[in-house]
Amino acid sequence: AQKVTQAQTEISVVEKEDVTLDCVYETRDTTYYLFWYKQPPSGELVFLIRRNSFDEQNEISGRYSWNFQKSTSSFNFTITASQVVDSAVYFCALSAEDRDDKIIFGKGTRLHILP
Amino acid sequence: NAGVMQNPRHLVRRRGQEARLRCSPMKGHSHVYWYRQLPEEGLKFMVYLQKENIIDESGMPKERFSAEFPKEGPSILRIQQVVRGDSAAYFCASSPRVSGADTQYFGPGTRLTVL
Asked: A23, A58, A100, B85: least surrounded by Cβ within 10 Å?
């Protein structure tokens, strides 16, 4: 069965601090995809990243970076120099082509950036 | 290229009424997924449709819920005889699904409130 666990329900940090959101996944598929989405207070889902299971290279996009480690089944997300606009709920998610690409979401981590 | 459109954005129904949620996929996308987000929860897969076909409805409640994606027009998620527990945000996503696990593009969601 597929499962995504985001152990941190809620995190608060002061602006400009770095923060890492943890994500651990379970799957028996050999080919799968991992995602992060942001859900700001307005409620829409904002796509941040998709990685496939064969690409373990870490990725950096501006203040965002992602650390994919297959050995520990983790796909952690770090925000550097956090800003108040980063306040949102962040979802880690998993899909597999052999399962019709249905996306399995974690329960989300609510991130508060305090000014 | 317009994104995925959902309407209405907000829908209020009294218990026992019917709710119809519409999703217009991105141009050229023939695959639609519906997800439900209960308050303070992550998104959960409901149903996957292609034009005129239901491919996977394993996440749909057994009663009162139905979905369609006709040859012409939007995909419709229909909830009959709504109850308070149906109050949630309903998101649809579309995909071209040409090869591999193409990224699903999410609509802004419909927020259903049952009084």
From this structure: B85
Cβ separation of B106 and A44 shorter than 8 Å?
Answer: yes
pLDDT band at B103 (very low <50, low <70, confident <90, very high): confident
Find where tokens 């499962």 sit. A3
Would you state the pLDDT for residue B33?
A: 95
Task: Look at B42 and A33 and tell me if their CB atoms are within 8 Å.
Answer: no
Interior angle at CA B63, CA B53 and CA B67, nearest 5: 25
Record: contact A91-B42, CB cut-off 8 A: yes
Q: What is the DSSP string of B49-93?
A: EETTEEEE-TTS-SSSEEEE--SSS-EEEEE-S--GGG-EEEEEE
Task: For residue range A5-49, list pLDDT tens digits in order.
Answer: 999 999 999 999 999 999 999 999 888 999 999 999 999 999 999
Q: What are residue B92's DSSP bridge partners?
A: B34
**Inter-residue contact B26 to B105 (CB < 8 Å):** yes
Compute the distance between CA of residue A93 and CA of residue A95 in angstroms, rounded to an integer: 7
